[in-house]
Design goal:
Low-confidence stretches: 24-36
Shape: flat
Largest sheet: 6 strands, antiparallel
Number of helices: 13
Organism: Winogradskyella litoriviva
Strand order of the largest sheet: 1-6-5-4-3-2
Protein name: Short-chain dehydrogenase
Length: 279
Amino acid sequence: MNVPSPTDFVFKTPLYELISWKDEDAQIENAEFQGTEGKELEVQNIVCFQGKVDGYCVECAKESTFQRIDKVPNTWDTSWFMATRKTLGFTLTCARNAEHKIEIIYKVLPEFEGIIKIGQFPTIASLMKGDVNRYRKILKKQFSEYTRAIGLISHGVGIGSFVYLRRIFEVLIEEAHQQAMKIEKDWNEEEYGKLRMGEKIKELKNYLPKFLVDNAKMYGILSKGIHELSEQETMEYFPAVKLGIELILDEKIKIQEQKNKEKEASELLNKIANKIDKK
């Protein structure tokens, strides 16, 4: 996998995902420690970073800034680091409350020329709550499936996470299907039942978020992930598919907010009009 930034290593990188320094062609911007090149430098930036990272604090239940508090190596001893099979880690404290901590444990695997995260508290799923809670109302019953997908990917289970994301995608299509059946007088349910997913999306385009219609291929990616791709491949593709699902949900939230505003404005204007008419 590509070497993550220190922020992504803390808040997004799942357990047991090898982060290798093999490829010397990789580049990194704003590295805090210099003197090495490529992926080795990127891994060094994780191990030795001294700065701050921004993310969700589980105990504050809001976004915060975290500072590393344990001792940081002043230099990168490449020969020692690459020769040792050692369990290491670091601790971050919340800027709002120093008692709120994130603890990371990782292992050096010189035989694979990389590091692997083997422990973390709070979990990735917990740290992602700040990002996903906004989808609770729009997803309703499927919200638990969405959080399960994130929980699975945080533990290195890619195929299982795709199962839950595909279910959410299918529910979005079915909601549009039910809406079309109610609105369109000449709706042909028998013909609709014969359509493939891509064809169903075209048929329902007036009832679906534009991003979903424009990226109908997402369903094919999810299906291939479940039936054909490896755990490694699904884990690699998960962030892109998750982002696609979130963009669809963001669009649905905007549509719902617009409808709510229109309803509120209409009710207020009707009240004003009735008052004026009575005068």
